[in-house]
Amino acid sequence: MSAAEPQAVHAAANRPATVLFASLIGTTIEFFDFYIYATAAVLVFPKLFFPAADPAAATLQSLATFAIAFFARPVGSAVFGHFGDRIGRKATLVAALLTMGVSTVLIGLLPTYAAIGTMAPLLLALCRFGQGLGLGGEWGGAVLLATENAPPGKRAWYGMFPQLGAPLGFFLSGSTFLVLSQTLSDADFFAWGWRVPFLASALLVIVGLYVRLKITETPDFQKVLARNERVRLPVAAVFKSHGGALVLGTLAAMATFVIFYLMTVFTLSWGTTALHYSRQTFLLLQLFAILFFGLTIPIAAVLADRLDRRRVMIGVSAAIAVFGLVFGPLFGSGSLAMVTLFMVLGQCLIGMTYGPLGTLLSEMFPPEVRYTGASLTFNLAGILGASLAPYVATWLATNHGLSTVGWYLSAAALISLAALLPVKSAKEK
Known about the structure:
Main location: membrane
Protein name: MFS transporter
Order of helices and strands: HHHHHHHHHHHHHHHHHHH
Pfam families: MFS_1 (PF07690)
Largest sheet: none
InterPro entries: MFS, MFS_dom, MFS_trans_sf, MHS_symport
Keywords: Cell inner membrane, Cell membrane, Membrane, Transmembrane, Transmembrane helix, Transport
CATH architecture: Up-down Bundle
Oligomer: single chain
């Protein structure tokens, strides 16, 4: 037995509950940090960091900084993926969580435009880049932590736990802003209240670090060590030997990002401005709808283990394309009941596509480059599908009406559907 083989046995001793909680708590923290920025980019930053005579112009400038993180995420994927495939999943996940956490806390400490002028939005953009860098390394590692510890036949079920961090993080961020909006005056909220969620994330990071430090390496990575299969430059190996999987996976995940950020950032922005809903009303509506996001993730995971992830993703992509056709009529109906139905349907579709996504992408790459490959694929899809989605949607709705936003969503879903068709299912490998 080689020196690495006893470690493989030890790694297999990870308790399922510990593994699943460690993968869930990390992504919950990361997405909480990410979403409080998204919410603030709509409600706070246009007023405090981007003063302009035209509120719409300030909002667009704020959403542009929101997009920065998506361009930072592939950089984080390459950097953290390199170490995740070279030295291990555990240490890399700890570093990614710290990067995200420090960047978020610093945002809560930034002076505004009124205090330091143009340096304020520049520092905000820099911290936003740090958020994207950390999340670029977090997601892939959390998915691998779960799926590489999964028993046979339950890989999608295990892989959905880090995906649950998205609705949980969103729910926590939305709840925090809702409580602050209801308990503080507008003057206090904009003076200091908006900083509370950013500073409070430090407590969540401490919990996440404690849990992450208690786990051991995954069995799959220990086998890579035992067989001496590590590659010198994982990112180069992904582009050279797995370029097809990278392109197909990126396009296959694109619709997931488009619908997610249309149903969260864009709807909040458009609903509280053009549709004239109050901030509290629309935050409550989003919090109600996000419950369906969380509920449909495990349903999708069960189906993905029984029917195959690819088939589930194909079916949901087709459903998203159809949903795009009713996007404008439902969201712009003027009826709170119809808007609620619209939000619930959209969040259900997000959950159904998001649940199996991590497992599908991780299975497209071999263990020696899996951290880098899955992370790059997920985050390149973020650039295509999410980075500019709120900006593009706002421009389309302003100039051509809400229905064109739905057509944009349908087009993205059809591209993802086409990319999924040639992907080999897990049962075919």
